[in-house]
Design a protein that fits this description.
Layout: H1 11-29, H2 34-44, H3 52-63, H4 69-95, H5 100-124
Helix pairs in contact: 2-3, 2-4, 2-5, 3-4, 4-5
Length: 137
């Protein structure tokens, strides 16, 4: 038994204490991916309300450049998804007058879902999304 309350009472306690300190330091160095996850959700929120992607893009613009490179690539991916999606939406609405736009709207919805799922998967693996510069997937 130890005389001091802050000293471990056995070798197992010391090992546990060292492991706990190491884990807390590791988590302190791991970047927070919550905002990037929220931005993906806000981009998908376009199916519920039209303003959530704008909020997501603003968050991405504000937080890009504040984390590791792989996380910054997610914010870049968010921004590109917003602007490319907006362009596709405008083209779809214009072409809706000749009925082709309705098909393009469905394709745009699939495009957005695929991009967000791919981005979320890469985020959960703590790596940059594939094909950030792509206009498709």
């Amino acid at each position: 038994m130890s005389l001091h309350a802050d000293e471990p009472s056995s070798r197992e306690d010391a090992t546990f204490s060292d492991r706990t300190v190491a884990e807390s330091h590791t988590q302190a160095r791991r970047p927070d991916t919550t905002l990037a996850l929220i931005v993906y959700a806000l981009l998908l929120g376009v199916f519920v309300t039209g303003v959530t992607p704008v909020i997501g893009a603003v968050i991405a613009y504000v937080y890009r450049g504040n984390g590791p490179r792989w996380l910054d690539e997610h914010y870049r991916y968010h921004i590109r998804t917003f602007w490319i999606g907006l362009l596709y939406a405008v083209i779809s609405w214009v072409l809706a007058f000749v009925l082709v736009g309705f098909l393009l709207m469905a394709l745009q919805a699939i495009w957005l879902i695929v991009r967000c799922v791919k981005g979320f998967k890469a985020l959960s693996e703590r790596r940059a999304p594939d094909n950030v510069d792509s206009w498709l997937w």
